[in-house]
Design a protein that fits this description.
single chain; 789 residues; alpha/beta; TIM Barrel; eight-stranded parallel beta sheet; six-stranded parallel beta sheet; 22 strands
Length: 789
Amino acid sequence: MSVSSLAGSLAVSTLGVPRIGPRRELKAALESYWSGQSDAAALATVAAGLRAANWARQKSQGITNIPSNDFSLYDHVLDTSVMVGAIPAIYGWNGGQVSLDTYFAMARGTQKDIHAETCAHGHHGGEAHGVPAQAMMKWFDTNYHYMVPEFSKDQQFTLASTKPVDDYREAKALGYETRPVLLGPVTYLKLGKSQDPTLDPLSLLNRLLPVYVDVLRRLAANGAAWVQIDEPCLVTDLDEATREALRQAYGTFAHALPKLKIMLTTYFGGLGDALDLALHLPVAGLHLDLVRAPEQLDAALSKAPRGLVLSLGVIDGRNIWRANLPKLLDRLERAVAQRGTDHIQIAPSCSLLHVPIDLEQENDLDADLKSWLAFSVQKMGELAVLGRALASGRRAVAPELDASAAAAERRATSKKVHDTAVQSRVAAVDAAMQRRPSDFARRKAVQDARLNLPLFPTTTIGSFPQTADVRKARSAHAKGALDDAHYTRFLREETERTIRWQEEIGLDVLVHGEFERNDMVQYFGEQLEGFAFTRHGWVQSYGSRYVRPPILFGDVSRPKPMTVDWWLYAQSVTDRPMKGMLTGPVTILNWSFVRDDVPRSTACRQIALAIRDEVQDLEKAGAKMIQIDEAALREGLPLRQADWQTYLDWAVESFRLTSSGVAEETQIHTHMCYSEFGDIIAAIAAMDADVISIETSRSKMELLDAFRTYKYPNEIGLGVYDIHSPRVPDTIEMVQLLALAREQLADRQLWVNPDCGLKTRKWDEVRPALVNMVEAARRLRANVAQAAQ
């Protein structure tokens, strides 16, 4: 049902829903296709089924504005690149519709020998062989990864995919009138990059807009009355060039399609000083995130032009807590009274992509906790209740409102949530607990003498492939079909086999492989008080990689050591240094569904104290190196610069609280995932880790620029092997990357490693890649020795 036909009632919208399927059907279909076990037709059938189920689910829950084109086989930003023909020359595209093989080559890269695979799939060959994937970055401040668009100075755009139109037509044929979703042209360009540093992607707007106009015209011609266009860049710090680009883009759309109604959608924060700009763009509707920025409602209501429809994002699309519906209605009733039901819509704060699908799948959760939660389906139900209350009065939904208020009261007073001992310990933290006993220069001298490592030491980030046998054993153990003794024996055999192989290929610093761990956050959360876990609460991270974020519901403490026994066993079977492997407090926080009843900083300090205890126990057990991964530190950075320092202060403080209780001879490592480090380089230095490992392969060492400019003094592990792609880089490629690094940093600073853990890769990819990596380090050492003669 279109918005224009809802006079006298109130429209209830979603901005997008999870793509993956209640039982991860999309993952199975993708991996079957990639492995050659199924073809494109089978993949398309699964995808169509998931789309149809999503539309049906939303309609059954009472959603009136149902989106289309929110589904993606891999990533919606990649879909946009394909739609506008932004296909870098390396992928060999020669125009026309972009093939599925080219699409996945951009997403995952390819090996040089995929001709046979291409034939098996029945696709045309010759488009994209032996190429790396596009760069990958975090989608604003979420744990979702998008494929970074790549532009050139001579960039031309052309309509290369009609997916938005196809999806709209598909829904219509099934009886669903949908509101198609497009990523806005300005945000899309700002997410992109160019190998040419002189190219401002926004300068390409004039070339890009005709493709968008073409798509919008096709949607209108097929009957679309409204189109949702997402411009989350509006909640970031905007320069005048971006503001002018927004005016130009939406002025162009209004001129070309005066009858098409656009819902301009913002999320992940408040509009701030861009509110006036957004309110006066020539669009029919504006969506506001009132979860992240509830304060913007009053200004929007007072300033919005009379005819503008306001979409109020009042249900949290980023977290899983049940809303207090009566409290929300207190604000919403004022908004409806002011503007009328025909000029107000209610919606989630953002796409529901970031939450699991259905709480009813969770049969093992604590009953109290479950009563406090809402997943995607339940959030739609909450929206429907609000819509009915606003259209017909609270009496129409009195039982639902009473249940919502009662759940909020039970959660606020539950002893399962609050622990006075934990709160007292946090209150007692002082500055001395956040400082190492000596500076890095002193520590380095002591550590070098103790460890006696070669130049360019090699290591890995922590995990090794979790094979089908490992997953099968874990599942059998969880079901009770494999007892503790046999499961432990299996894990020890896998661990020792992996250690022996690392010794064999010549890695300098070893890891135990983490076969006992299901996930780098879940593994720790399961052993900490204050966390709970789901069985089916999957959320997409990228492509077919899904995670089940822990639910941080209460005060956090560590009942007993979590990793010490496994470290002791691993170190007992080798003479080489074995890293202790931990996940840091900021990453555990940022990759969990966090409490919304205490400040994030408070929850993070609680986690930090728990991990600090583990660090000290590892050191007491004999660990010479302890890696505390903070993969998500940059991800949590607020979108507006004025808010950065507050976040960085408590995030860095939490890391140092975790790492500073050890002696100077204990080497502290950390790892960070895909990030723009220039924004936070001072904070990274303040963390004072002895070694930080980062991604440098996809970015071709670009991320080292920040470390060079800052004159970063500590050591850096260079991620020369892109583990997010099945592609195996050769030794020459790695040597070339390392040569670029040596132009920017001193040899004494450099370590050599993959860019992330190897859990998701296959052994037949990992083995040759790591052999090549070790050989690259050896060649570099030989070159340095030869040059010194």
